[in-house]
């Protein structure tokens, strides 16, 4: 991934996009671990970068890294509530079936974002995800653990 793009996502420097004018900016670049700029923004909780990226490249919302995590998995596991809300909101702007694709997306361990939020004690995100899709509570991972089991 381009160093300038990576640093902008980490620091939240959304003016980076205006500075380069979008010229030859490939937002589908990834790090060695397969993280897109959206994954990096989710890790750092930089909502303004997420907005810029998704305005230009909405398909990154569903992109998985080498562990099968989407930006939603990462934001939920790290407790970035605003980022999680915005990612869900971006998915909501699409039809219902497409929104559920993001919420129900599983990583290589078959964990949903809900599993990740529960495992990391981010109960405000747990509540948000269950409100959006109550059926998430019944998904089991590779260890046959449902989110409800993990919460117990």
From TrEMBL:
UniProt-listed Pfam families = Ank, Ank_2
Q: Does the keyword Nucleus apply?
A: no
The record ties this protein, via SUPFAM superfamilies, to: Ankyrin repeat
Keywords per UniProt: ANK repeat
Q: Where are the ANK repeats?
A: 33-65, 67-99, 109-141
PROSITE patterns xref list: ANK_REP_REGION, ANK_REPEAT
The name this protein goes by in its record: Protein accelerated cell death 6
Annotated source species: Quercus suber
Upper classification of the source organism reads: Eukaryota, Viridiplantae, Streptophyta, Embryophyta, Tracheophyta
Q: Which gene encodes it?
A: ACD6_22
């Amino acid at each position: 991934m381009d160093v300038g793009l990576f640093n902008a996502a980490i620091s939240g420097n959304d003016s980076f996009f205006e500075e380069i004018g979008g010229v030859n900016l490939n937002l589908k670049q990834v790090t060695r671990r397969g993280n897109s700029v959206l994954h990096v923004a989710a890790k750092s909780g930089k909502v303004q970068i997420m907005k810029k990226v998704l305005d230009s490249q909405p398909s990154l919302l569903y992109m998985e890294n080498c562990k099968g995590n989407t930006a939603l998995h990462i934001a939920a596991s790290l407790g970035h509530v605003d980022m999680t809300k915005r990612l869900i909101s971006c998915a909501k702007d699409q039809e219902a079936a497409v929104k559920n694709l993001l919420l129900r997306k599983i990583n290589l361990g078959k964990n949903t974002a809900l599993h990740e939020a529960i495992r990391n004690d981010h109960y405000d995100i747990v509540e948000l995800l269950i409100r959006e899709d109550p059926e998430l509570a019944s998904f089991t991972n590779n260890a046959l653990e449902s989110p409800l089991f993990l919460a117990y």
